[in-house]
Amino acid sequence: MIISVPKEIKNNENRVALTPAGVKELVKRGHEVHVQQTAGEGSGFSDDLYVQAGAIMEPTIEAAYAAGEMIMKVKEPIEPEYGLIKEDQLVFTYFHFASSEPLTNAMINSKSVCLAYETVEKADRSLPLLIPMSEVAGRMSIQEGAKYLEKPLRGRGILLGGVPGVRPAKVLILGGGIVGTNAAKMAAGLGADVTIMDVNLGRLRYLDDIMAANVNTMMSNEYNIREMIQTHDLIVGAVLIPGAKAPKLVTRDMLKDMREGTVLVDVAVDQGGCIETCEPTTHENPTFVIDDVVHYCVANMPGAVPYTSTLALTNATLPYAIELANKGWKKACAGNKELELGLNIIKGEVVYKHVAEAFDLPYTPVDKFLK
């Protein structure tokens, strides 16, 4: 198979979908890998390293897209890329379709095969290609939240961990999954007073067992959220429903109950966000203020630490990419339920229920294409 890796062009997105080590693994299995020039520079991988690994370098993004039977990316295609995607081409990347109707329609019109990292799912319901970036984003949510609590950045002017004789900041984390767990670990390690909320009592029991003494657990419901937001300094939205829009747990009217300089970090923003007032921002302009509350809603948080993120992501995606390249998408997905669940759109038809429901589109069972 011919695999192609274009350079990411989303604002401040420095990750790359395939490392030189990944190229070498594919090439030695008889596949041809094309990489756009400078695609890996943001993550610390030079063109020379790709050439040494056996890649064919392409001078432009147009050439990179034109060359590949399978396109490997990190972030969803953006508007300048829509017209570069060809009929029957396999696109393997994060899509988060439920948060973008224009993207969904563009991929339907392209008649390509869209296999989304974020909906590849194991039998235990874990999301192996989302987990590494959720780990990064969860940890970064505290790193960024601590920064924006500083007064010059319009935060409350409070040090996350406090100092002897001064109480630490209070951190509220909505969601006890991978993002929330990693956020809680970071916040607790910095000495904050942490509360993590979830609707799953079994998960809360688990978190109560493994977390440090300065992490408390609490059942998530509207009453408890309304009570807690009044006294917490940093609030992290960490809720995920695979492939679907995130529920709005913090609503517009709740802002009036927060203290001036409270910081909201919505990690779920790439799935529509769980904080009603959050809109996607970029690393270039990461925050905005509504009712004296600071909103940090960067949709590609791991892109700010591309070396770590690229290695973490490609460690997870490469085995699946090898299987797709070796067998072709039809045979690979028919024989691997995890990959089958990653299929979202096939040749103009939506085959993932949550995406169809998000925009009231016709749904086609994936079996139609795998027989």
TrEMBL record:
- What catalytic reaction does the record list? L-alanine + NAD(+) + H2O = pyruvate + NH4(+) + NADH + H(+)
- A Pfam family reported for this protein in Swiss-Prot or TrEMBL: AlaDh_PNT_C
Query: What does the entry list under GO cellular component?
Result: plasma membrane
GO terms (molecular function) for this protein are:
alanine dehydrogenase activity; metal ion binding; nucleotide binding
Q: Please state the Enzyme Commission number of this protein.
A: 1.4.1.1
Q: Name one GO biological process term.
A: L-alanine catabolic process
Q: Which cofactor does it need?
A: Mg(2+)
Note accompanying the cofactor annotation: Binds 1 Mg(2+) ion per subunit.
Q: Domain named Alanine dehydrogenase/pyridine nucleotide transhydrogenase N-terminal: which ranges?
A: 4-137
Tell me the residue numbers annotated for binding substrate: 15, 75
Q: Which NCBIfam families match?
A: alaDH
For this entry, the protein name equals: Alanine dehydrogenase
